[in-house]
Amino acid sequence: MASSSNMKDTFSDENLPYHVDILLSKKIYNPGDTIHGEIGNGCFRPLPREQKRVMIDETAILWSEDKINCKKPTQPTLNDISRLSTTIAIRANKHERNGNFRGIETGSHKFKFTFQLPKEGLYTSFDLGNCDGRVRYCINASLFEVQCFSYGLLMLKQTLLFPIVCPVDPSECLDALKNSYKRKRVEFKKGRYLDVELSVSKRWLVPGEAIPVQVYIDNRSGKSIKFSHLSIRQHVFCIATHPLKCAKEWFQDTLGVGMDAHKIPNGSKYKYVPNFNVPALIPGFEINGCMTLEYDLKLDVGFDRITMSSDMKHIVCTLT
């Protein structure tokens, strides 16, 4: 049984006499898949003064809807947005609280669990480093101290994040095979100008596929163009209507490629096809009334030989 890395939350404590691992049989799941897992390798040691018994309860939260409780309105975070979204929750096996089960004794134990993911209503896992908008799925395992055969004090809570990938159908995208064309003119003094054109023959692409894109630059600026860089821009847009109406957006560029010419002298035109393949990106999606993920081709053109980590003030034209 394959193990995924665990993520401990605030209830975990290295000094506690309990340790829990959550193991899954697969690393990636699709909607409708059956999850087979195991909560085990637990090390339950007796406490110095008394031996306590614990009960275990595991829950797979596929979406959370905890209500926001605040005395005065505050600007919602993206976590607040997700908590107010539609709920899809699954409760796996709960160990019965009866006379035959008096808790988990000292030692190592393993508990298997199985449940099926919904076939509808899920979205591909998404977690962008600098963005608060996320799509996450997790399994929680909680340990409670037994008190009169009922749940008592929460002793430990372990959380395991696992990814879900939702297949996409290009036939559902009306613009999948349509071409796209953008043109921009930057004007300078004395009638000088710079024309930049970016065209792509189709708009539905998958990771690893070569982007059918063409760049055309007509340089009448009075200077040589020494920099042209093509990348993919991720655009995340999130919206909330409660407790306050709020919208946020984030942008992040992937690694890209430069032009294959040393420079484009003033008074000349240049056309080239960048050798650029789609990186490992998840498909764009839209969670109605909550979050949208889109991708754009981005072309930066400048007069200086710069890197994308240097001062961006040298960029004279950006086309998306």
TrEMBL record:
Top-rank lineage group of the source organism: Eukaryota
InterPro entries on file: Arrestin-like_C (IPR014752), Arrestin-like_N (IPR011021), Arrestin_C-like (IPR011022), Arrestin_domain-protein (IPR050357), Ig_E-set (IPR014756)
Annotated Arrestin C-terminal-like domain residues: 190-314
Gene3D superfamilies assigned: 2.60.40.640
One of the GO BP terms on file: protein transport
Entry's Gene Ontology cellular component terms: cytoplasm
Listed PANTHER family: ARRESTIN C-TERMINAL-LIKE DOMAIN-CONTAINING PROTEIN, ARRESTIN DOMAIN CONTAINING PROTEIN
Protein family per UniProt: Belongs to the arrestin family.
Record's protein name: Arrestin C-terminal-like domain-containing protein
Species this chain originates from: Wuchereria bancrofti
Upper lineage: Eukaryota, Metazoa, Ecdysozoa, Nematoda, Chromadorea
